[in-house]
Amino acid sequence: MQKGHIGVTTENIFPIIKKYLYSDHEIFLRELVSNAVDASQKLRTLFSVGEFKGELGDLTVRVHLDEKAGTITISDRGIGMTADEIDKYINQLAFSGANDFLEKYKNDANAIIGHFGLGFYSSFMVSKKVEIHTLSFREGAKAVKWSCDGSPEFTLQETPKADRGTDIILHIDDENKQFLQKTEISRLLKKYCRFLPVEIAFGKKTEWKDGKSVETDQDDIVNETNPLWTRKPADLNDEDYTSFYSSLYPMSEDPLFNIHLNVDYPFNLTGVLYFPKIKNNIEVQKNKIQLYCNQVYVTDSVEGIVPEFLTLLHGVLDSPDIPLNVSRSYLQSDSNVKKISSHITKKVADRLEEIFKKDRKAYEEKWDNLRLFIQYGMLTDEKFAERAQKFALLKNIDGKYFTFEEYKELIKANQTDKDDTLVYLYANDQDQQHSFIEAATAKGYDVLVMDGQLDTHFINHLEQKFEKSRFTRVDSDIVEKLVPRESNHESKLSQAQREDMTAVFNAQLPKGGKTNFYVSFENVGAEAAPIIITQQEFMRRMKEMSAM
Ligand code: ADP
Ligand code: MG
């Protein structure tokens, strides 16, 4: 038997680990299960390249809980470790990682372990003693047992173990007894290991028999090894995306649409993002995107990683290239993260534009739900705002949708100020402004509906972006001000012109008064707008004009 002192300069690292990482105790299970998965996948790779000539057999990773003994065991049939490898990867390497980690983040309580090879040692956050029983896949390897009670002393000795692979046995300490409950382990597996690429069994499946739940002899597999985002979009249909969505967010309404991300250069990123359906004025839940690192769950707090406005989206992002396990401030300054962020923005814009072009009707139907995201994006992200010019819509009170360009065309002839400023009229409360809206439309003006949560900000944004334009709320004042469009024209008539006009009208006067209705030209000039009036009214107007 070998005794030794683990390669660590800090006198006793464990109290420090426990203290700094207090809030994240539960990740120990993620770390150990993902190590087991790694070891299994490594063996699979060695097998496929012919370096391992034995039989792979069943590679299921097993989590076993023994409440009486107070232990949790994580077993795999992966590559295992020789005594030398334990020395290298557990005694030295892992601890040097721990040192780096503590050195770098001793003042940052938010830092999370894993990234610096602290993974395995997170087991000491919850254990008074940890054992490794392992047999390497290498020919002629001897099984070894490593044991450590949380001091820097360890023992390493040969042990009988027939099957290839590794068992990690955690002797849970008194302060962490909650992890000895089946429900708690289930919860952690569901949270962190749900999409790991190797099957993970925890206990046996149960079934209902004679009104009782009884155990079967079938493994209860807790994970889905090929989650949707790891598959090819060509192999997936709408229903696949929708059902994956509802598996992530049970009870929510179907999403509006999805964006399947798949990037391998200059960084690695896969995932599926969804635009959730939101009802008007109900706050969107932020931070529903789950972040994974090679299918290992890391966090659902993605601020600083995805662009601010996309934190409103739902879904999954998976990247081995995001330095996932370090602090937020570090993340935000990381150049890789910035690249990823702007790439996601681009992808989202591409997809929106594609849907808009392909099926405008469907896009318009979704607009009321969509507008919050797009407006928020345009308000907070310059690049996105540029792209969204093409597919952001304005809606008028008739329920018609226009792109910015189209709307400008629509009002350009009719809705300008004296100095050629385009006047965008809008209502933010259609009921309350009902009569003003009517008055404005009666005069041939178009009125937009701007009653969304962000519309006030959005209007400011548009006023800055659109050249020579002004947004004006329709109210009594405005409707009165709109009237001068006619009087403007009238006042432009000189006395001589008026006399000419009168002459024209006089010439048109019916003889004998047989005609009842007459056409009058209200607006003189290029925009002359004929209206029908009664003969009586016609006479009255003529008299009025002659009197002037
Ligand atoms: P990381 O997983 O980031 O390398 P860990 O501290 O989690 O860091 O693990 C340290 C090393 O210990 C691993 O890289 C691996 O070589 C070895 N190891 C841990 N668990 C296992 C296991 N179940 N089977 C084989 N090797 C393992
Ligand atoms: Mg690890």
What's the quick description here?
The chain has 548 residues and is an alpha+beta fold.
SSE layout and pairing:
Blueprint: E1 2-5, H1 13-20, H2 27-48, E2 61-66, E3 71-76, H3 83-105, E4 127-135, E5 144-148, E6 153-158, E7 165-172, H4 182-192, E8 200-209, E9 212-221, H5 238-248, E10 257-263, E11 269-275, E12 288-293, E13 296-299, E14 314-318, H6 328-333, H7 335-358, H8 360-380, H9 382-388, E15 393-395, E16 401-403, H10 404-412, E17 422-427, H11 434-442, E18 447-449, H12 455-465, E19 469-473, H13 476-482, H14 484-492, H15 495-508, E20 517-521, E21 530-534, H16 535-547
Parallel strand pairs: 2-8, 12-14, 17-18, 17-19
Antiparallel strand pairs: 1-6, 2-3, 3-7, 4-5, 4-7, 5-6, 8-9, 10-11, 11-14, 12-13, 15-16, 20-21
Helix pairs in contact: 7-8, 7-9, 8-9, 8-12, 11-13
The structure holds adenosine-5'-diphosphate (ADP) and magnesium ion.
Magnesium ion binds next to helix 2.
